[in-house]
């Protein structure tokens, strides 16, 4: 009987026999490979499953006057800047300087091809000029080619010197009196009437709209701007138009409902960065002072 063969000892892992530096080196290689693979996945562009299409926004049109540009369907009344305006002669409110209150109109936008002149009531597309907005405004008819002139008198000795607008304007005697100028830079008023916020007013300020190439066009835009200080629904009837020294003058009737005012504007270059504006408005309830309108526009001059 042969002796029993002893059982062979169990095999042991050879990892324990490896030096530790070899194990660490192998682990470092594995980690490096994994990091490289992850980086490659992140770098490669991923194909999106679906592209969400956003709305295409048309470029905005620069505003033409004192304010944001209206949409193409805006009516001329909506084009006119009326925010914060109060009728002439009402009690002054805290409001900014008139140079920043009104929409500043620009007449420098030119079309590549000539466009027909708008008629009152026309809706304007974006990109219109200040004069196109004027012609499309149903509140102001086209100025006749042969509108009458008025006889201007001599300038008075007593004046108010408005150094911000560069203008001197006649200082009228009683019942006129000087008054808090805001939102203008000088102001004279008639006494208040019972039951009405309107009263005669004479005011000056730096031109609140952008001057045009021709002083008559500037005066037309200034007259349109003054409608912001008349009651809503006001419409203009031109009465006189003529040049004055260093500028232009307009006289017009403003009708609102059954009432009206007589008004005038004079745009004069007073040597400042922009022309000066003098305007006067007297309601029909104080029509006895309508004669003062001629005195005012006759005496407006540059301080120079």
From TrEMBL:
<feature type="compositionally biased region" description="Low complexity">
    <location>
        <begin position="54"/>
        <end position="114"/>
    </location>
</feature>
<feature type="transmembrane region" description="Helical">
    <location>
        <begin position="22"/>
        <end position="44"/>
    </location>
</feature>
<keyword id="KW-0812">Transmembrane</keyword>
<keyword id="KW-0472">Membrane</keyword>
<protein>
    <recommendedName>
        <fullName>Fibronectin attachment protein</fullName>
    </recommendedName>
</protein>
<feature type="region of interest" description="Disordered">
    <location>
        <begin position="54"/>
        <end position="126"/>
    </location>
</feature>
<keyword id="KW-1133">Transmembrane helix</keyword>
């Amino acid at each position: 009987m042969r002796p029993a063969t002893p059982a062979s000892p169990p095999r042991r892992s050879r990892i324990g026999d490896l030096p530790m530096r070899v194990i660490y080196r192998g682990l470092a290689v594995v980690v490096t490979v994994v990091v490289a693979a992850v980086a490659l996945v992140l770098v490669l562009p991923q194909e999106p499953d679906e592209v969400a299409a956003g709305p295409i926004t048309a470029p905005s049109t620069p505003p033409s006057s004192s304010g944001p540009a209206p949409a193409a369907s805006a009516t001329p009344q909506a084009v006119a800047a009326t925010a914060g305006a109060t009728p002439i002669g009402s009690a002054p409110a805290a409001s900014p300087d008139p140079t920043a209150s009104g929409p500043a109109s620009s007449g420098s936008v030119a079309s590549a091809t000539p466009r027909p002149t708008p008629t009152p009531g026309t809706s304007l597309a974006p990109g219109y000029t200040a004069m196109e907005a004027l012609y499309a405004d149903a509140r102001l008819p086209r100025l006749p080619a042969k509108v009458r002139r008025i006889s201007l008198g001599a300038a008075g000795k007593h004046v108010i010197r408005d150094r911000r607008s560069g203008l001197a304007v006649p200082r009228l005697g009683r019942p006129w009196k000087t008054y808090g100028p805001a939102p203008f830079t000088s102001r004279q008023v008639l006494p208040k009437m019972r039951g009405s916020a309107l009263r005669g007013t004479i005011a000056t300020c730096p031109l609140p709209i952008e001057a045009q190439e021709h002083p008559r066009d500037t005066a037309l835009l200034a007259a349109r701007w003054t409608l912001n200080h008349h009651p809503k629904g006001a419409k203009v009837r031109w009465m006189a138009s003529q040049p004055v020294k260093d500028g232009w003058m307009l006289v017009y009737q403003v009708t609102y409902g059954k009432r009206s005012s007589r008004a005038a504007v004079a745009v004069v270059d007073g040597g400042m960065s922009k022309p000066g504006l003098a305007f006067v408005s007297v309601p029909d309830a104080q029509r006895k002072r309508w004669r003062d309108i001629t005195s005012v526009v006759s005496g407006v001059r540059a301080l120079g």
